[in-house]
Amino acid sequence: MPLPKIPSKPATILLAKDYPKATGPRPAPALAAVADIAPEPAPTPKKAATVKAVPPAKKPVVAKTPAPVKSKAVAAVLKAAPAVLQAAADAVEAKGKPSPRGKVTPITNEAPHPAKHKANEVAIKSSTSRHADQTGTTKMFVLDTNVLMHDPSSLFRFEEHDVYLPMMTLEELDNHKKGMTEVARNARQVSRTLDALVSNTDDDAIENGIPLSKLGNKDAKGRLYFQTRMQTADLPQGLPVGKADNQILAVVRSLEAEQAGRAIVLVSKDINMRIKARALGLPAEDYFNDHVLEDTDLLYSGIVQLPDDFWTKHGKDLESWQENKNGQSATFYRVTGPFVPSLLVNQFVFLEPKNGEAPFYGQVKQINGKTAVMQTLRDFSHNKNNVWGVTARNREQNFALNLLMNPECDFVTLLGQAGTGKTLLALAAGLAQVLETKLYNEIIVTRVTVPVGEDIGFLPGTEEEKMSPWMGAFDDNLEVLNKSDSDGGEWGRAATQDLIRSRIKIKSLNFMRGRTFVNKFLIIDEAQNLTPKQVKTLVTRAGPGTKIICLGNIAQIDTPYLTEGSSGLTYVVDRFKGWSHSGHVTLARGERSRLADHASEVL
Q1: Neighbours of 602 (CB within 10 A)
Q2: CATH classification (class only), 127-286
Q3: Class of 303-376 in CATH
Q4: What percent of the chain has pLDDT over 90?
Q5: 390-450+460-600: CATH architecture
Q6: What is the value of pTM for the model shown?
């Protein structure tokens, strides 16, 4: 049996009110009858659009003309046909000839619903919360313990809405306060915040709610409520009553019964807790105030393509001059036009004409209203400008090397899939500026020690020996960089390798607090596994003359409870954009091998 042909055009989805009513014969025969019957046309009056204009002094007299006499066949057809075919029948009577088949367009009052939806479009808010937003009423959020331990400042992130803490949440906070982990530190910080809120208040104030703005948080306009009495609610039989999650669900249900008409929403980071709440008919949401972006496709890429008519619209008052910066001559352009306000400082711009003209690659240096100053880039794809034997293989790598080799850029973030050259470019730039130009004293490399699979246990040796298994990526790149030097022979390569090793220090993140790095080239690898708090701890270690480079791929996050939207790497990229001493580039094209490129696409 042959397969049916796939339609080339998508079907039009009609609204419910546009479907024809099943009160008469099917519309297809009716349309055929209208098309096949061609009676002698009756004289019809001219339409209003064809009447000639009358001078305004004389009012036109509109005479009522009798309706044209229609044939019996057409009248019968119109009686049975749906209202959509009325226009087609009128055309048949007016013109005296049938309209061609297949060209009758049904008239719809509203546009059809979109047939395509975004694949990752997820409703973050519950229906109860969305209804409260539409009516403008305040909500009461019941917080799970994991929200407070994830973000200690979450109490003050709910704007004008109220916050309710069940007694079981306080009990679980007390159970997690011991230890030196980040979760334990957050639990202790929440306990201190709650103690400061409760102090100097009487029992009536706790019953009526404590203002969250008491400690100076002006954005928090709601109140904090505690569970002051035992609340019972009927949960399905079989659920363990002693489990903490079920007790919190019982509190949410009893609050809904007590405060009928008010939106009571459970906020939890636990996916299974939210699923259980939805199954019981309770509104539940994720805590998404820690997300920098809901859609990572909107993350700042650091690169923008100029429109084809950019120089036509912005070249009217064009100024250009040359300056010698850092031993290199660069050309500057001052342009004015409507496209400038959408740019950011240190953002890369490019224009590659299709008519064979020379492409333009530049970097925005200053923005003042609709006027911007752009600087041409150094071409690191040419062998004469190689960095420790490494040349840029594509446009994004050239942009990245311009940031890495710029001494005025103190903070650089590089994003990209596996094999785009992030580590190799950063290490080559570090070696060139430490060993050749002597701009920095040494290279410090660190990364998060989060295993991909099962942990293999404790590692022997000193701090650097313990970190060496985590630094296999840098060893691979050092081997590539050492092979490029073939002039000194085997002994020369060995001596160079020992010299390089003496200038590279591998440090652990656990001992970074309190340190200050002066004139260092600091590389933070796998930065997507860092929380925003850990990134802040690292970046604030920078002393005078230190450059920090964050490398990572937000599609490969191994840390639990971290997502692409809440990763520390996403956080710093969004916060540092537009600063005159930082830069960011998203590397798009893999240069490792054809096997790695194909695997990243199909796997």
Answers
A1: 6
A2: alpha beta
A3: mainly beta
A4: 31
A5: 3-Layer(aba) Sandwich (3.40)
A6: 0.65
